[in-house]
Amino acid sequence: MALRRLYAAAAVAATIGFAASPAQAVTEIQWWHAMTGANNDVIVKLANDFNASQGDYKVVPTYKGNYADTMNAGIAAFRAGNAPHIMQVFEVGTATMMAATGAVKPVYKLMAEAGEKFDPKAYLPAITGYYSTSKGEMLSFPFNSSSTVMWINLDALKKANIAAPPKTWPEVFEDAKKLKAAGYTTCGFSNSWVTWVNLEQLSAWHNVPLSTKANGLDGFDTVLEFNGPLQVKHLENLVELQKDKTYDYAGRTNTGEGRFTSGECPIYLTSSAFFGNVKAQAKFNFTAVPMPYYPDVKGAPQNSIIGGASLWVMGGKTPEEYKGIAKFLTFLSDTDRQVYIHKSSGYLPITKAAYEKAKAEGFYKDQPYLETPLLELTNKEPTENSRGLRLGNMVQLRDVWSEEIEQALAGKKTAKQALDAAVERGNQMLRQFEKTAVK
Amino acid sequence: MQKNAIFQSKLLPYALVAPQLAIVLIFFYWPAAQAVFQSFLQQDAFGLSTTFVWFENYRDLLSQPDYFATILRTFGFSFAIAVSSLSFALLLAVMADKPLRGGTLYRTLLIWPYAVAPPVVGVLWIFMLHPSLGVLSRYLRALGVDWNPLLDGDQAALLIIVAAAWKQISYNFLFFLAGLQGIPKSVIEAAAIDGARPMRRFWTVIFPLLSPTIFFLLVVNIVYAFFDTFGIIDTMTRGGPGKSTETLVYKVYTDGLLGGNLGGSAAQSVILMVIVIMLTAIQFRFVERKVTY
């Protein structure tokens, strides 16, 4: 009995030893991400494919909760001295990550030091601009990007005798009234991510600044200035239409998106990445068209800005590990792989070559709405006001702006008062961030 | 007979309380001390740059009118949650204390909600009362109520109070029931023989005898309303609309974790700690006098 146990133990030890010995030579690269469902499968497949393609490095993806959770987990891990190698951070966390010199390794430096071929011009500027310094140095690697589009319930338009989806805001308001009269009494149109759509994208789309210093891209001493006539007028319109539910507020995040797929709100502005859910749940004909604009604003529409997330490489790792990370980023930039990510996740391709290839393959022929966000992003050469934004404490800034917009929609403040307060409170937070940011 | 235990060794009593002391020191005093220290610092989220600023975080905080509004709101919430859940629980307990058929089943069912975690409570209530998802919202709208807690701050506040109070009713019920069963039947019968009607018996005999339980539950409920409602608020309203459901604890979370302002958030925690210590002290000092043990 005892002898048998000894044999068993020896066998187990031998197996473990055997299995472990080749693994020791492999450098592990921890990748923390926030993707769920089908997009999580894409991440796992990317890691597996990379691991199978070579034998020196092993990428280990770990799901860490939603975007904010993942970022907080990464920050906490960094403070405890065991940060992951790669961390997926949503676009609004960019300023926080960027301010953390020493905690992160800029991608352009990483690629140069590892000797990987890397041409920043191969990437779509509307996407990389968001994650680059004003000199064009790429700080983080864009992974999943999307933009705001206007989702349209085509069956509803038909019911209300509307020939084509609206192009401008006044047309949206008119059509929403018609839709309301045609039976959509609780919601003519609505949107998710209230500040992203109605302040951030609205400003970029009309080439109006959200804040000074190129929306913060050129320095942390940026000052908010989105209480201008355009934004005030837009909010006034929403407040007016909220009264009879021609517009109906659907919350700060994307929890209200079900109102589109259920057929309650026939016009709905939100991320292009909403596609997966629309496709799975909507029992009507749908499309996605570019965001509406105010035709009286000169030069509108400009170009839209992105949402989504990028991959940040954390600091304090060994050169060998950095080499593996650089190889992995090159692997991700491969044209075929980008086309695969684009098609399977609904997020945008990040290289020009991948976009061209998807186009050449006729991917947008039967689903033209999948090209809508790309057309918006590349509509015009980005300006100071439409390259992107980089504001510290952005997560909380959005909450503060939402609070003020909610006050206006509830009739407790005028649109002007609400935006003035949002700017003032936001500026206080930006100064707080500036004080603690590493110089 | 000797009443006091005398230890032979001088060290033994210390050794015996040491584990308990260690737990209190490690899990309470150490983090609390860290919070106090952190509240004097200004630090970026990653902890890369740290400046010692003395009381600047407190000054910043106390110069915001919003902060005082949040303090007032938290007190309002706590009061509303404690009063509503205590009174409902007492009513239910008095009913359940009567000899009933199937009384055990009834009591067990009333205790169940306590096993539900606060975020789950939030989600449950959202499914009932979310303006577009909620089942009950449709009926409310059909009745002509313009139910929209996404924009109407008072409705959102009501929603939080109802959900938070609902969750706490079971806990209170359990203690009230135990308290009621601990009241000697002879006292109540004596009052009945003296001609006191049920209402009078309740207010003059049962209620005073129940006062230790009520006092204990009051303290527990206020602490609950201050801290444990976080999960409910986070899942239901995230502090909105506007700031109408932001409590002190929720603000600590948003400023510290979402905003990355750890110093300011630590200062808030310290203030919160002082408030709760004061509240509990006041309760013991003044309310306890009225309690008949």
List strands and helices in order, with pairings.
The complex is a heterodimer of chains A (439) and B (293).
Chain A: H1 2-24, E1 27-33, H2 37-53, E2 57-63, H3 67-79, E3 86-90, H4 94-99, E4 104-105, H5 107-114, H6 125-128, E5 141-153, H7 154-159, H8 169-181, E6 189-191, H9 194-205, H10 212-215, H11 229-242, H12 258-261, E7 267-271, H13 275-281, E8 286-289, E9 306-314, H14 319-333, H15 335-345, H16 352-360, H17 372-377, H18 394-409, H19 415-436
Parallel strand pairs in A: 1-2, 1-3, 6-7
Antiparallel strand pairs in A: 3-9, 4-9, 5-7, 5-8, 5-9
Chain B: H1 11-38, E1 41-43, E2 50-52, H2 56-62, H3 65-97, H4 103-111, H5 118-129, H6 135-142, H7 153-181, H8 185-193, H9 198-228, H10 230-236, H11 248-258, H12 262-287
Antiparallel strand pairs in B: 1-2
Helix pairs in contact in B: 1-12, 2-12, 3-7, 3-9, 5-7, 5-10, 7-9, 8-9, 9-12, 11-12
> Residue ranges of chain A: pLDDT <50 for 5 or more in a row?
10-23
- The neighbouring-strand order within the major sheet of chain B is 1-2
Identify the quaternary structure here: heterodimer
Which two chains touch over the largest interface?
Answer: A-B, 42 and 32 residues
The percent range for helix content of chain A is: 40-55%
Radius of gyration of chain B: 24 Å
Number of helices of chain A: 19
Cα shape of chain B:
globular
Order of helices and strands of chain B: HEEHHHHHHHHHHH
| Shape designation of chain A | globular
Radius of gyration of chain A: 24 Å
Tell me how many strands of chain B there are.
2
Structure notes:
The complex is a heterodimer of chains A (439) and B (293). With 439 residues, chain A is of the alpha/beta class. Chain A contains 19 helices and 9 strands. Chain A has helices at 2-24, 37-53, 67-79, 94-99, 107-114, 125-128, 154-159, 169-181, 194-205, 212-215, 229-242, 258-261, 275-281, 319-333, 335-345, 352-360, 372-377, 394-409, 415-436, and strands at 27-33, 57-63, 86-90, 104-105, 141-153, 189-191, 267-271, 286-289, 306-314. Mean pLDDT of chain A is 89; it is low at 10-23. Helices cover 72% and strands 2% of the residues of chain B. A two-stranded antiparallel sheet of chain B has the order 1-2. In chain B, β1 (41-43) and β2 form a beta hairpin. Chain B is globular, with a radius of gyration of 24 Å. The relative contact order of chain B is 0.13. Classes of the chains: A alpha/beta (439), B mainly alpha (293). At the A-B interface, α3, α18 and α19 of A face α11 of B.
